[in-house]
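INTERNAL AUDIT FORM
Audit reference: QA-55
Scope: verify that the stored structure record matches its stored sequence.
Auditor: D.O.
Record contents follow.
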Amino acid sequence: MREALFIKKNKDRWLKNQQEPPESPDELAQSFTQLVDDLAYAKTFYPSGKTTRYLNKQASDMYLSIYQNRKEASSRLGYFWKYELPLVIYKHRNTILFAFVLFTTFFLLAFFVAARDPEIANNFFGDNYVQKTLDNIADGNPFGIYETGNPVLSWLGIMINNIRVAFLMFVSGIFCGVPTMYKLAETGAMIGIFDQLFAAKGLGIQFWLVVFVHGTLEITAIILAGASGFVLGKSFLFPGTKRRIEAFREGARDGVKIMVGIMPAFIIAAFFEGLFTRLYNNLSWLTTFLTTASVLFVIWYFIIYPIQLARGRRTIAGEGARGYA
């Protein structure tokens, strides 16, 4: 077989190994075996060709990924946070954008509807909660609701509840994503109505500075939990060129990665809500700093970094492809 024909026949598979490395051990072993066979063939018939050098490098890289990456659990977790989660975020960026738009749409709708009909707040939160909030506003301590209760117990209770809701949003994605969509829309509407309670009293800016001490991470995690449910449902409904069961397994795996990835966000957000949000009167500089730091982190880790990482991988793959083309 001529070298050009050999390249044409196998080029797509080699590029796929570079751009989308196999994730499961079985797929990795199969790809490595095929690559070694290709390398043996190339060494036999094109010993001094570019193809042989390219395949030798790719086989070496894959070998190292199999045998040298047997690290401790801490290293594996580091790899997950540094590479796996951001790349999954980038892979499903359109689905995440859909979840964000859905959440924001119902937030805005509820905000403006509540401005016209204040009774909506009572229907969502209950008369006692709304009245307590209005009393706090009248007393000059608008966010006093966050100062009640034991800080540690509040932290644990909020964390457990948020994680429970997130897992329900993920798992219910199997039902065509409809329950996930409903819960995400409901959460957006609830926050929009809550915001309107304060905005109507001229406290709109304070709402963002205080509530988003914990709300930045919490809402980001909720949106990503909704997106994970959509990923699960979409993989089953629209398998594309893959077999439905294979697409579903891949969607479930990616959804679980997103869910694992947002657990620290829920833990930290609940910690902030239980222990720091209540300090908005005495240590306003601290709460403002936490809000700003959270916003910057979310923008960098969930938006900028995944794009940079994905572009870097494509650049490396392109340089490798030019090496044997």
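Auditor finding: record pair retrieved intact. The mean pLDDT is 84.
Action required: none
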